Amino acid sequence: MSLNPVISLLGRRLRLAIIGGGPGSFIGAIHRIAARMDDRYQLVGACLSSKPEKAKKAGRELGLPAERSYADGIELIDKEAKQKNGAEVIAIMTPNDSHYLYSIKALESGMDVICDKPLTNSLEEAEKIYQKVTETGLVFCLTHNYTGYPMVRQAKAMVEDDQLGTIRLVQVEYVQGGNAREDKIDPEKIPWRQDQSKGGASLVMGDIGTHAHHLIRFITGIEITAVAAEAGTIVPERTFQDYAGALLHFNNGARGIFWVTQAAAGVENGLRIRVSGTKGTLEWMQETPQQLLFKPIDHPCQIYTPNGPGILAFASRASRIVAGHPEGFPEAFANIYSDAAEAIAARRCGKKAESLAMFFPKAIDGLMGVQFISKVLESSQAGSKWIKIEPYSG
Amino acid sequence: MSLNPVISLLGRRLRLAIIGGGPGSFIGAIHRIAARMDDRYQLVGACLSSKPEKAKKAGRELGLPAERSYADGIELIDKEAKQKNGAEVIAIMTPNDSHYLYSIKALESGMDVICDKPLTNSLEEAEKIYQKVTETGLVFCLTHNYTGYPMVRQAKAMVEDDQLGTIRLVQVEYVQGGNAREDKIDPEKIPWRQDQSKGGASLVMGDIGTHAHHLIRFITGIEITAVAAEAGTIVPERTFQDYAGALLHFNNGARGIFWVTQAAAGVENGLRIRVSGTKGTLEWMQETPQQLLFKPIDHPCQIYTPNGPGILAFASRASRIVAGHPEGFPEAFANIYSDAAEAIAARRCGKKAESLAMFFPKAIDGLMGVQFISKVLESSQAGSKWIKIEPYSG
Amino acid sequence: MSLNPVISLLGRRLRLAIIGGGPGSFIGAIHRIAARMDDRYQLVGACLSSKPEKAKKAGRELGLPAERSYADGIELIDKEAKQKNGAEVIAIMTPNDSHYLYSIKALESGMDVICDKPLTNSLEEAEKIYQKVTETGLVFCLTHNYTGYPMVRQAKAMVEDDQLGTIRLVQVEYVQGGNAREDKIDPEKIPWRQDQSKGGASLVMGDIGTHAHHLIRFITGIEITAVAAEAGTIVPERTFQDYAGALLHFNNGARGIFWVTQAAAGVENGLRIRVSGTKGTLEWMQETPQQLLFKPIDHPCQIYTPNGPGILAFASRASRIVAGHPEGFPEAFANIYSDAAEAIAARRCGKKAESLAMFFPKAIDGLMGVQFISKVLESSQAGSKWIKIEPYSG
Amino acid sequence: MSLNPVISLLGRRLRLAIIGGGPGSFIGAIHRIAARMDDRYQLVGACLSSKPEKAKKAGRELGLPAERSYADGIELIDKEAKQKNGAEVIAIMTPNDSHYLYSIKALESGMDVICDKPLTNSLEEAEKIYQKVTETGLVFCLTHNYTGYPMVRQAKAMVEDDQLGTIRLVQVEYVQGGNAREDKIDPEKIPWRQDQSKGGASLVMGDIGTHAHHLIRFITGIEITAVAAEAGTIVPERTFQDYAGALLHFNNGARGIFWVTQAAAGVENGLRIRVSGTKGTLEWMQETPQQLLFKPIDHPCQIYTPNGPGILAFASRASRIVAGHPEGFPEAFANIYSDAAEAIAARRCGKKAESLAMFFPKAIDGLMGVQFISKVLESSQAGSKWIKIEPYSG
Questions:
Q1: Contact A97, A121 (CB under 8 A)
Q2: What is the mean pLDDT of residues B376-384?
Q3: Chains touching chain D at 3 or more Cβ pairs under 8 angstroms?
Q4: Is there a contact between B309 and D302 if contact means CB atoms under 8 Å apart?
Q5: Alpha carbons C252 and D230: distance in angstroms, whole number
Q6: To the nearest whole angstrom, how far is the Cα of B273 from the nearest Cα of chain D?
Q7: Which of B177, B279, B385 is facing A385, going by the closest CB pair?
Q8: Rounded Cα distance, C283 and C289, in Å
Q9: Whole-complex ipTM
Q10: First to last CA, chain D
Q11: Nearest CA in chain D to A146
Q12: What does the pLDDT look like over C50-62, one tens digit per residue?
């Protein structure tokens, strides 16, 4: 096996430019670590601020020359597209309302795209991105990073391997405490996430609900066909949504429950999923990501660990180390970047990527996430009555 | 402190007779262990089978003389009531549909009652029991045994002590795997739980849903005012309900989610509750009952343990041993029996029991549980729309 | 199966008298709960204090008539032995230095004995008890209660079933914090445990070291043949030992390590054992006793639970409840009492007890525990050089 | 704060060359990820094989030009030293017996060094490296990577902050299963670790014992002054050591126990440490590295998490992400690389690095580790008698 499949394919790393994620951004640093982890990308340009001086300073700290630091994302795409050895992949980590603009521009410029979730704030924009991706045949990777964890991939692979039998019940929850305190509202300085025009109609659904939604679909392979939901605001005098609960129907008859909130004081990052099939139950928690519990119907509970016994190919390719040496959130994020890199490099030299590299989240997944938000809100506004969901076929 | 408060009060143990729980019954053995644990009851009579010979044999194995082994519960109550030194407390662990009959008879005979949950299968019967208890002033203890765990009591005490602040979010779940397999249906031998005329309209709600419901109320002290729910059957060709999910509104504005099932293959006895207030979040799981996690908003997560540091009086009185020596389900069950014994003994000698002994579940709690089942089913039949709940005041 | 094997054999419960464990004693309450749990004993007499009035008051609180409350253990044995329907089993929970006196007296009076550990403070006394037990053929049960936990029994049964292969490595530790604080020394009120003439030469070894030692032998079935050890005092100005560490050689060539202390501030009751064989490793912790981890060499780690899948007969007979309902320390203690009761009842009616009832700790185990203490101290005094141990054959 | 302190100091990344860690090496991949993680190094040269073609192919896969791929480590150092913009930092990840050669050569060539542990196979070589480092003033970083975990750093910082009080007891263990199977011995293909001339006198001590030893010293700040130990071979017909146990005396009077093995079948990477002081006990396990348990003597057990509440500066600077997003082994390894980079960059521009960056393991720590191995073996050969250790002062 090559030490670097992208270099082996292309003779070089992929040229990456990033829009967003400047100084102070949590997710920006993570994107850059993820891009660097497996050495498949070379950062060649960035738009790290809309203020030219700030953008240049930050770019310099990332080792970029001044002329490759931009203060405008569209300008970045335009200039990089024209430049010899310009960026060929654009990573977008801006506020949600600009994902559409930069995605479409990058795709139209022939660039492959890595984009933060949620895909967009509106279903219309999401559909257009999906169409553009389909038309262009370019790679579009959406960073539902939790699917990069080896044990999440093991869960998916065990379901596909029929180790769970027919899936009957799904429990998913994403509980955080980051918005547990009452807000200090300064109308001049509302964070973009809390501003519906930028962050979307439901902060909690866009921020973490889409992760929970995608995690269900990724692991189980079944689709939600109806939802009875309530999304709302529990912290007094708050102007954005901070919790949502839903009952779920699936296309194979399974039933599920969904709970997300950012108002649970003291909780850190409690994404958890449990899936019960006829043969047993899987349990995974993001806060202890290196454990996947499987409770078979007739045997003692088993703890799967990365690169440990019983690990299937789709999971083991997501680990860099021998069993017992924990990898974490950055490595999971990097797995998304690295799989996308394999797909991009293969496409760029007219080959097919290894099939196990092709399970990173894509525009269709983003579209379904945006659709799910809209259906949850529709049900909530209709007194939690059941709303049908027609899955897109991707 | 006395080694045995009942003997100290009465000069003897309480005379107990039991109806139900014969050979092969899981819960019968538990009731008897619970009654024995703290030595506050003397078993004096039993109806362990409707077949006289089987009843006598089982009674003999419990050390009872033949004449105190009955094949009919009503006969037991009648004869014990007339007997010199007859039973003064009746414990009922029969199928749900007979709880009403024996409870009313025992109360009318001046006996204190310990009864399995759910209280009854119908709201009407539940209301009548509650009225009879109120009229007679007798003790009526419902065995929502999970409230006997020291760490559940610590949770309640911490809420009352305002260590959580205002409660905002509640997650409760009770997940089991006992009914995960498809049923082998022999119409002649349907277990009573699966027969709606005996087990009630919703097996899963009666069996475990009422425990989850009571646990919320016990710990938080707030009441559910509306529910949007679905209860149904996930295992094919099954005639009884095996899952229920619900969104909850509370009387203080809090929100909650509720999930119960017995069809999660491989899961043992997963009762879990999480309560978030403005100051932090509590988490408790029945399968590791000696740990109560408290995640304060500004401090590291704390693990409370029975008789460990920070334990409040209501919890410490529920432990028999120094910290680090686990007690379990039987001790929790026994705590309910023992508190009821203190209340009964005090009543019988015209005194007041210690106030911390008075938190065992009562008829009013059973009534609210039966009401909750009916509202969950009503919402489920109405397409999961919101149904209001008017709490009884007890 | 009978609801009560002792009543089925004898037509009644065993008549038990207890010496020691009066008001304020932790272990006395546990012994009485353990005796009551499975209803195989009837308490008929007690010596709960050397002060007659205090003894009578405590006896009354346990429901005993005044004439069966004694202020002297020898008197109790004498009078109960002569009394019609007097005690036939004596349970001894006095300071260690009197175990010998009461054990010999009870055995000489034809009574079966249940005795707290350590067996004695001297090897000579321990050998004499063992000889007396052998001569009389009476039952002598030593309360190494941790062997009553279902998952400890599962561990033993898995070893016997060759699921571990050849045992190679053993790690045992017993870490507590009860003696972490510096002592407030009042020479008039030294607790008996801290007084070498009563508590023995090494508090930490007698109190918890013998438990750790027995746990190794019980689970693995191999014997320690040499020890290199240090036992000493870590808390300043203390007059008793509070830690001991040892390297171990076993008769099959295995190697081990041993660590016990009561000076680890903040630790509750951390008894833990790990056993590695050629096929995998077992791990058990007293503070989460309902989990037994098995890490097979080629499969994912498995979590065995009481009455869950894969549980062997010797373990399942130690559980009273279906899987997922934790039992604890009192039930483990009760398992020792109940197995001894089966052995005693069988002996008293000239039958053989069920073979799985015969694994409770006996005088031979106590003798080996006392021998182990002496060898640890001998090595420690000799600069931790290796000291051979010649196992007794029991 | 700068996005990249090295670029901010030097205007560029540090130029790094690596010796060892070619295709198939676990640790080589980890070193390269660690160097890349925080973007403080640029890989400019490598010796990845002693076979020129293999070395070049591997170098090409890492993006190196052919002329910077070497087949000999000394040649690499020579040529890079003379080259304009040649490597200024050498990372050594070769078999233990060559650490000395490359370290001395690199130091003599004015290069800063990052070297795998153990420092050397002999005390004499270790002392010479330490002297050379002292003479040259160059940075020498030894990759005791476990000290890079945020929670290990929190432990150290809590000890320094006196949150534990006086340290009294230390338990350390490092248990693995990688060498549990009997060896298939092909005398032609003995792995270098198992060949004493390359791997050193004690495989288990060199491989993992030094990690355990350093972890104690790093966290507690106290030094081992005597050891009574046994090191040996438990797996039959094996020619290298696979377990070692030791009792420890410390310079402040504390006592400890030490256990390492690679023969525990089924165990993954069980490095664990517990430290008890007068105020409480810390517990950390490598397999769940994002949790640090603190059991205060008077308060409930607390779970510290990276970037969670109560985290001290030395720990928080080791996290890249907000609380609840696990980092793992690669990030811990990278923390060592990144701190060394800050020290190197500061030195190279005549400045002092931030004081919190200066706690990476150094030559003195490696020297003490080699000394500890020698003393363990000396005690083992002398029948486990106590051997004094005179700590080096660094």
A1: yes
A2: 98
A3: A, B, C
A4: no
A5: 17
A6: 20
A7: B385
A8: 11
A9: 0.96
A10: 31
A11: D325
A12: 999 999 999 999 9
